[in-house]
Amino acid sequence: MPERTREFGKYGAQGVKGHELVARRLDELAGGIVTPITVKRGLMARLHYLTRTPHSRAAARDAGLTVTDRTLKAWLDGRRSPSRKNLERIETAYRTVRRANVAPYLLRRLNAQGRGTRVEIHPLNQSQVSRPRQRVLEFRTLNIRHWDQIVDAWARGDDAALDTAWVDQIVDLGSQWGQYEYCTNIGFAI
User: Fold this and answer.
1) Which of 18, 37, 117, 143 has the highest count of CB atoms within 10 angstroms of its CB?
2) How many other C-beta atoms are found inside a 10 Å radius of the C-beta of residue 146?
3) What is the dihedral of CA 83, 42, 93, 76, to 10 degrees?
4) Neighbour-count burial of 131, counting CB atoms closer than 10 A to its CB (0-12 exposed, 13-18 middle, 19+ buried)
5) Closest CA to 47 of 56, 109, 151, 10
6) What is the b/e burial string over 22-45, where b = at least 16 CB atoms within 10 angstroms of the residue's CB?
7) Distance CA 140, CA 129 (A)
8) Residues with Cβ < 8 Å from 112, sequence gap 6 or more?
């Protein structure tokens, strides 16, 4: 069984940790507000999402948006604009609340009543690695039936837990799983 990669890119290989690509793909599946937060429409949409119900307000506070109701009302009325630091807090709170709201739906969709979801793993880019050091890596597919730990770690924003959950799934690739710790792309056949 291979160990985790310690010095990735030492010989010129390029790629991204698999769990980061999974998180990006889950974010794409979760959807959300596309307009940037720097545009008034995007800011207002996020603020309305975070303040629509008492539950969403509590979730936004738990996610780090700790401004007074007066300030929030001034932002919603357009009388004041949030600072750059508060824009970052709003964006972070929006992503956190959105992930928590969408996670149960994604879990049902990905588990597909026990059938799971087919995952395509594209290997790392070795174009900058000298010929004698290149490995033979092929495109791989894997059917993941249990997404609970992956989706839970993604919804909480816990990178370490997501990495562990992802590696627990790709171990099913056999003794070659370590070659797919870093990848160029991961796709879901949904």
Assistant:
1) 18
2) 14
3) 60
4) exposed
5) 56
6) bbebbeeebeebeeebeeeebbbb
7) 21
8) none
Give the side-chain half-sphere CA count within 13 A for 176. 12
95's tokens: 């992503």
pLDDT value, residue 4: 63
CB-based burial of residue 188 (10 Å sphere; 0-12 exposed, 13-18 middle, 19+ buried)? middle
Q: Kindly report the pTM of this predicted structure.
A: 0.84
Please name which of 140, 118, 104 lies closest in space to residue 190, comparing C-alpha atoms.
118
Whole-number pLDDT of residue 3:
59
Query: How far is the C-alpha of 18 from the C-alpha of 167, rounded, in Å?
Result: 8
Could you tell me the two tokens for 84? 């750059």
Low-confidence ranges of the chain (pLDDT < 50): 1
Angle at 169 between CA 165 and CA 171, to 5 degrees: 120
Which tens digit of pLDDT belongs to each residue from 64-117? 888 998 999 999 999 999 999 999 999 999 999 999 999 999 999 999 998 999
